[in-house]
Specification:
Blueprint: H1 17-39, H2 42-63, H3 68-86, H4 92-117, H5 127-151, H6 153-177, E1 181-183, E2 187-191, H7 192-213, H8 220-248, H9 263-285
Antiparallel strand pairs: 1-2
Helix pairs in contact: 1-6, 2-3, 2-5, 3-5, 4-5, 4-8, 4-9, 5-6, 5-9, 6-7, 6-9, 7-8, 8-9
């Protein structure tokens, strides 16, 4: 799912070499990313996230079927768009349009996922269209993460912790208790047990961090609702990436992260969740 790679869950309950590798990779990355978010300035965080964006952009171009000069043009154009928007980082109108477009897209992605599961898949064959969708998916998410950090590093850490926890809970709960498949026509490895565990984990960590910040919070129901919606969208993000891979015959989006596959496999849910969560948090900050 989300910040996680590969399937939400797997069937085998026994630890395997791939699971151990997955844990080792996460153990190496998580402290670095947490320290960067907590102690890093906005330009530093932007630089680190930019590296992930570059890798995700490349992998999206591969999944979209872009090759040669077209792939290079897609990557360069995406980075150029990011730089242009960065020059007007504080523009609230641009922020609203980017977040709004991303939220609408992920709702549409949910429809595509449900349609595929019901036996009415939409062909994801138009390479140019998939490339354009990459802009809508990746660029707003990149800036959503930066806007959250600008608001307060703990806001960004909360989102990352929510997605990581949901992914981890889903992976291991699915391995242990997964029986009924969540969307077998989209991603056969995912189960309802994993999805419910993801939901519980996401809500739990969001509420827990909120209580840690404010021992007497008055908005726990609101926090739980935002976390539930965010987790659901993260699952949609994971399923949509699975749909893209399934349609084009890929098992993973790449091989950059041992045990996880590619960068997109690791952050698919985060990409989907970021604009939705940021929209909720930024709206709350106005009141």
């Amino acid at each position: 799912m989300s910040a996680g790679a590969g399937p939400i869950d797997s069937k085998s309950p026994a630890p395997s070499a791939s699971v151990i590798t997955r844990i080792a990779t996460a153990a190496a990355l998580i402290p670095f990313l947490v320290a960067t978010i907590w102690f890093g300035t906005l330009p530093v965080v932007g630089g680190v996230l930019g590296l992930f964006l570059l890798a995700a952009c490349y992998e999206w171009s591969v999944l979209s079927g872009l090759v040669g000069g077209v792939r290079l043009a897609f990557i360069i154009t995406t980075l150029a768009v990011v730089v242009l928007i960065a020059f007007d980082f504080g523009n609230s109108t641009i922020r609203a349009y980017l977040l709004g477009a991303a939220c609408v897209w992920w709702l549409l992605a949910a429809v595509l996922v449900f349609g595929a599961q019901l036996g009415h898949p939409v062909k994801l064959a138009n390479r140019v269209m998939l490339g354009l969708l990459g802009w809508v998916a990746l660029v707003p998410s990149f800036f959503a993460l930066l806007w959250l950090h600008e608001l307060a590093p703990i806001k960004l850490l909360t989102l990352v912790a929510l997605v990581w926890t949901a992914d981890t809970m889903a992976f291991f709960a699915g391995r242990r208790w997964g029986r009924t498949r969540l969307a077998d026509r989209v991603s056969p490895g995912k189960t309802w047990a994993g999805a419910w565990a993801a939901m519980g984990g996401g809500i739990g960590v969001a509420v827990g961090i909120n209580v840690w910040i404010d021992p007497k919070p008055e908005n726990l129901a609101e926090v739980a609702l935002v976390a539930a919606v965010t987790t659901a969208i993260a699952i949609i993000g994971d399923l949509f990436e699975s749909l893209m891979k399934r349609r084009h015959g890929f098992k993973d989006s790449g091989t950059l992260l041992p045990g996880h596959g590619g960068v997109l496999d690791r952050i698919d849910g985060l990409i989907a969740a970021a604009p939705v969560y940021a929209s909720c948090i930024l709206i709350q900050a106005q009141f």
